[in-house]
Amino acid sequence: MPQVWVSAPTTFDTKREAEVWLSRHRTAIVDKVVEPRAEASKTTLREYATLWLQERRNASGQPLRTSTRRVYEHYLDRHIYPTLGDRTLSAITAERIGSWYAATLVGRPTLRARTYSLLRTILTSAVEDGLLASNPCRIRGAGGSRPATPTTVATPAQVAELAAQMPERLALAALLGAWCQLRSGEVLELRRRDITPERVVITRGVTWANGTPHVGPPKTDAGIRTVSVPPHIAAAITEHLRRFTGSRPDALLFPAEPRGTTQMNPSTFAYHLKAAVTRTPLPPTFRFHWLRHTGLTLAAQSGATIAELQARAGHSTPSTVMLYQHATSVRDRALADALSTLVATQDASGTHSGPDSG
After folding, report:
1. Which of 205, 200, 152 is closest to 179 using CA atoms?
2. How far from the centroid of its chain's Cα atoms is residue 317's Cα?
3. Which of these is catalytic: 65, 79, 315, 326?
4. Strands (E), the chain
5. What's the whole-model pTM score?
6. Any catalytic annotation for residue 324?
7. pLDDT of residue 4
């Protein structure tokens, strides 16, 4: 058999990387498959990413949700394609990635990290497809960031005040966000058949794309769940169903128009929430998702286990639940008071402990 030469799409950092690439492509070379370098040198990032969006599957093996795909397309169109979209995969080097990153979304760390992570994921697929020998996205820590706006954990009194400042037909939405830990898309798709004063059943959520609502299952199987309603908001549910919800089982709890059949647009809902926030002591940056943070944090402080929080929140992994475990000044004050109580109790009983005890 005559010797066949093929050039790798880029140089390798280690001998091991070169050996892995050669092993992966030896069969393709023998079978006379188009050489990787040829494919990488004529396929642009835009072309590859377009195909990637079509074929990408989520953790459940399903095509990307409309809302997720829309977000990815936004990142690509606005922040990746203008600089890298028309370059071939073989021309996208670590140096070029570094230059792009240095000039992209400076001052917007969260969006910058998400955009970088998407590009890294796409190029990882290109490596798996044999078009690249290694991923040129190698900037340490570029895929992570701290939120520009710190999350606020509200107090129970602040949750009640926020609900009171919402339009009457939306007050229950704030209570469900905090005390049942629902996402906004889950709240806005709730129907009469999904809720009673004792429990909420979540099997769907609504997302929006191009001004049109799309109803679908939660992102993961864990998102399908039944949440017990805390007794202190049971009366609010009963009253809302009586005053603001149609009699049909599929009647929306929070339609765009009173007794309407179309879900409320999230931007409209956000407008009402923001207006209500301005009439409370909460920071003006407070958003609906922070009600969910609040509820999960307070549940943890009440003694809920990680498994219980995971089930209630509809998370597929324990690590995600841990993101919601925020310390609050109120809790810190309670811990400080508890320490003083412990000392006072020991002093009263004549029991002491410490370096001088013995």
Report:
1. 200
2. 13
3. 315
4. 199-202, 205-209, 212-216, 225-228
5. 0.71
6. yes
7. 42
